[in-house]
Design brief:
Elements: E1 7-11, H1 16-27, E2 31-36, H2 39-49, E3 52-55, H3 61-75, E4 80-83, H4 100-128, E5 131-136, H5 149-169, E6 174-179, H6 206-219, E7 223-224, H7 229-236, H8 240-258, H9 263-269
Parallel strand pairs: 1-2, 1-4, 2-3, 4-5, 5-6, 6-7
Helix pairs in contact: 1-2, 1-6, 3-4, 4-5
Length: 270
Amino acid sequence: MKLNDKTAVVTGGASGIGAALARRFADEGARVAVADLNEEGAQRVADQVQGLALACDVTREADIQNLVARTEQHFGPIDVFCSNAGVCFGEPDGAASATNAQWQTCWDVNVMAHVYAARAVLPGMLERGSGYLLQMASAAGLLSQIGDAAYSATKHAAVGFAESLAIAHGDDGIRVSVICPQYVATPMLGYADGDDGGGQPGLLSPREVADKVVAGLAEERFLILPHPEVDEYRLHKADYDRWIGGMRRLRAKIVGEIGTTRLQDMHKLV
């Protein structure tokens, strides 16, 4: 899909990858609705792209329905819905140590928000015979995030839901892509918004991710991998026992060298 003269929605658009996507989509000629819990931040980005800012809690289906309705009132039919909002908490100890509330929030933001978005926009897209569902997952949805079982499990679910959408609706003119980056210099990793990470190996800036996403949309690729090495790592899982053994060794190395699996520290080692 070419974005020129298209209407795009980006959730989690006030900062990080979402803000970069909103700016990049606008650069391509799209009309952009920027949605976020942080309405002030969404407005700031929307002002930069001459777009529409909307407050939205993606864990509330009614908020997403309102987001879709107000965007369509303002811009017309939605061509691209980018479910970008995401959350992670890490875990204090083992894989089951995150709280029930943290698990539920990961499920609601990382999975159900994608379901709510599809419910809201699919009827119109199916009627028109075209539309694009662009969903943010993570390399953790194909591999695993050491130190965050809730994030890994829900990102796997996000990839699975995207697969189901592509299978069920690909013949109806609906295109689906799932974005699976590794480490990106965002507030989630402790970087200030706009920080490019200072050339940290393996760390991309949000703008670099947005560039890769636009290229993936142009080719209508299901898997958009801003870090191309993820495709190679994914193939290693064909031998699951060997792969898990390797991941155990990696986790032991991380804990041995820095004493924690805290994401903000761990990514600098990996």
